[in-house]
Amino acid sequence: MHFLHDISCEHIMDSLADGVFTVDKDWNITFFNRAACAITGVLKDEALGRKCWEVFRSSICDGACALKASLEAGESRANRSLYFVRSDGTRVPISINAAPLRDRRGKIVGGVETFRDLSALRQIQKKLDGLYRVEDIISRSPVFQRTLSILPQIATSGSTVLLLGESGTGKELVARAIHNLSGRNGKPFVAVNCGALPEQLLESELFGHKAGAFTDAKRDKPGRFQAADGGTLFLDEIGDMPLALQVKILRVLQEKVVEPLGAVRGVPVNVRIVAATNKDLEDMVARQEFRGDLYYRLNVVRLVLPPLRERPEDVPLLVQHVVKRQNVLTGKDIQGVTEEVMRLLVRHPFPGNVRELENIIEYAFILCPGGLIKLEHLPDGLCPDTPATPSMALRGTMDEIKRQAAAQALARNNGRVMAACRELEVSKDTLRRLLR
């Protein structure tokens, strides 16, 4: 183990993105690199000299230790997946590789283990699969925590749920968590944006149609209610639903039957409704823009999701989460944001809520080559010394934001395409595509 005392070697170990630690034959930790500190949340001085199971408290420390198996067999053990528990109780998924540590004569004097944090990968996979639970919703806000604490009881109740909150506050995320915590989690979760489709198309999408019901209806098509049978139907932006369709939604809630367009008889369905809106439905009912009977059928369980500006304590957590996810998606190794950037983000009102924060970090990843995200990597108009312009309000699509970044890089480099490409770390074809 003498090589571990070599300063240059320690620097190499500290430059690795994976956590590395070594133990002697008595399982005392003898080396703990910088990434190991970052992943575990344990300082180097706190780890050295302690038993490895005291630091990691992993799911295999009770007898199936990969490092122990490696030392007993005298060979490496690779790609074991497990989790360990941080001091704050957070379970962190990791993959590990273990190997014996030998001296110059080949005698085993301890063991070495490397481990990689899989949290970002797991989150991306959960997003692809739609498997979100309460512990995946990131918040330390007391207001939001109260809502999350009762979410399991609400999920198992089977009652209709109405989610209220501004755009970008995570209403669909909460709806998916309700579904996955309920007894319907083995059945489909189907989401419909009621404000994204014209009335006739929305009616066909929700209730389905029979062949010949209208032009181009060549064959029968089941609607979203039938697709969600046995599961959960998430009606997003329910406040934008036309009044004529609200009557049909009310009948489904009352009679558990849908009538496809052109059908002569109804089709029974067993669907739980979770609805969401960013509008004031009570005010709409008073102005006769939303049916009062439907509102009271939907408003069995009402959850209000607070905007991000009312929970600034969540901003650092969300920044860390989005940075990890973007590192996985882009292949970059960005460590986080500077103190100046964090102060700016905590003070920002975030009219677009969490979605706006995600866009800001994704934009910064385009300009930041590595290390820490700095003020110059943020969109124009966000920094206090940069005047805001309508084009920089981050209300467009991500393609529009990327196009802005490409145009600004080209301007900073006086129109030199290759210089802009080097700054953005993209090819000429990619730069041209972004500008289009």
Mean pLDDT, to the nearest integer, reads 82
Cα Rg? 27 Å
* Unreliable spans: 1-6, 386-395
Estimate the strand proportion.
Answer: 15-25%
Class from helix and strand fractions: alpha/beta
> What is the number of beta strands?
16
Count of alpha and pi helical runs: 20
The biggest beta sheet, please? 5 strands, antiparallel
Question: How is this structure best described in words?
Answer:
By secondary structure, the protein is α/β, with parallel strands linked by helices. The chain is 41% helix and 18% strand. It contains 20 helices and 16 strands. The protein has helices at 7-14, 34-40, 44-47, 52-56, 66-73, 119-129, 142-149, 151-157, 171-181, 199-207, 224-227, 243-255, 281-286, 292-298, 315-330, 339-347, 353-367, 398-412, 417-424, 428-435; strands at 19-24, 29-32, 77-85, 91-102, 108-117, 161-164, 189-193, 208-209, 221-222, 232-236, 257-258, 267-268, 272-277, 301-304, 334-337, 371-373. The strands form 5 sheets. A 5-stranded antiparallel sheet has the order 2-1-5-4-3. Strand 4 (91-102) and strand 5 (108-117) form a beta hairpin. Helix 15 crosses helix 17, helix 17 (353-367) packs parallel to helix 18 (398-412) and helix 18 crosses helix 19. It is globular, with a radius of gyration of 27 Å. The termini are far apart. The model is unreliable at 1-6 and 386-395 (pLDDT under 50).
